[in-house]
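Researcher: I'm preparing a figure for a lab meeting and need a structural model of a single chain. I don't have an experimental structure, so a prediction will have to do for now. The sequence is pasted below. Please return the structure as tokens so I can convert it later.
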Amino acid sequence: MKDNEKFYELEKKIRSLPKPDYDKNFTKNTQDIIHENLIQFARSYDKKKKRTGIMKKISLGLASIAALVLFAILIIPIINLDSNLQGQQGKGEPTVDSNNDNEEIDQNESEENLYENEEYGFTFTLPESWEGYQIVSDSWEGIGADQQQMENGQILLIRHPEWTEDKPRQDIPIMIFTLKQWSSLEKGEFHIGAAPIGPTMLTQNNEYVFALPARYNFAFLEGYEEVETILQNNPLQPKNVVK
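Model: Understood. Here is the structure written out token by token.
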């Protein structure tokens, strides 16, 4: 109650004071001074606010760096320990891998048959299942524009060991052309058979071109898919012929 009475007395005294003459006391100069003081106070307040924000950012940055340093101190020894353990466990493994590699090489060598033709200069790699294969000689004929035989050459058939007359299997046919014959064939000076497309070149050496006949597998004999797979691995490798 006493506090309320004090405020009441203070209010009465304030109200009893004479009212200021705003026109006389608040001149243009006074207003400018008040305005300038307010601006300076606002600028000072902004600077303090910005300084506080910068200090907060610096504090957060220092805290992050400290956390990273602490993390590195804790983790690096663990990583080094794991590396040492792995290095110790890995001793002796190269010998095992080396043995596996040797076994794979020996196995691959035993699983392949190599047919070598010295006359025409090439080798042909066959899978193990073709062990006991046969080489059958055949021929091709090139017909000129006058429907007369113009060129001829040899076809070598690599025949699967399970081939029989009652149950034939797909052969691997290799057509052999001289370089001159192949050039004439490409120029359209003669054609082979009734197929609208010509033979497909496999490779060549210094004397001969080796090619695959058009439609060689259109009979879809047993084993034609295996022959396609064999040919996809580039089994025919040329060698220069020395005469």
